[in-house]
Specification:
235 residues, three-stranded antiparallel beta sheet, globular
Length: 235
């Protein structure tokens, strides 16, 4: 499962089993440049947040000030990501509505649109927020114990790396496709060729910024194509 965080409002937004669906949902909401996306249950997604930001995210989620130490607060947020219900969103409707807005607003989707499950078009409205949740000290303590136990398990034997798969053709048409993949591959190699989803997601934001600044390729154009590129790297 994946979940998005609006880093401007410091709120959790959408949760879904598909990374592509989460990306489409935040694109529809006009939040593609302000959201981070990570795997539920993984503390890595909070690693670049300040303690103040984590505290505000916790308060916006629970309505309470965090009664935890720094590490406990991170694990409390991790527990909250596991508690949220998945956002009802069929992938084909999410992609269809994102494509519709990309065609309507080639310079960038304005804020104010929301996904409508079961429809071919989004609507105007407020982004639906998750209902307030609570997390107890006992749950946080158990999460810490579980993570500590997992960290001392013997590492699995390293298997020989499989032969590289041939590049998968991107699905979206457009003259910018070769440039997007070329630039993405260059950034990926320079950053260490990671296949960790969270690291690729953060790299994706950097790539989008570079494509827009240096090549004039709008985020609305590069976002979906980089989703195809990521699937190729994670295959």
């Amino acid at each position: 499962m994946y979940i998005s965080i609006d880093m401007e409002e410091l709120r959790f937004l959408y949760k879904h089993e598909s990374l592509e669906v989460v990306a489409d949902l935040i694109f529809i909401a006009g939040k593609i440049s302000s959201c981070d996306v990570g795997s539920c249950g993984n503390p890595h997604m909070f690693s670049e947040m300040t303690e103040m930001e984590k505290g505000k995210l916790f308060k916006n989620t629970t309505g309470q000030n965090p009664p935890f130490t720094a590490y406990q607060l991170t694990m409390a947020l991790v527990e909250l990501t596991n508690k949220f219900e998945s956002t009802p969103a069929a992938p084909w409707f999410a992609r269809g509505q994102a494509d519709y807005l990309e065609g309507k607003y080639p310079e960038g989707v304005p804020a104010g649109y929301v996904f409508v499950d079961g429809s071919s078009r989004p609507s105007k409205g407020q982004i639906p927020l998750f209902s307030p949740l609570a997390v107890t000290a006992e749950e946080v303590a158990q999460a810490i114990r579980t993570r500590a136990t997992a960290s001392v398990k013997p590492a699995p034997l390293v298997q020989p790396a499989p032969a590289p798969k041939p590049a998968v053709k991107a699905q979206r048409a457009g003259s910018s496709k070769p440039t997007i993949w070329k630039v993405a591959d260059e950034f990926w190699v320079k950053s260490g060729s990671s296949k960790v989803k969270e690291e690729l997601l953060k790299l994706r934001i950097t790539i989008m910024q570079s494509l827009e600044a240096e090549y004039g390729i709008k985020r609305t154009t590069s976002s979906n194509e980089l989703g195809n590129w990521m699937k190729n790297k994670l295959a």
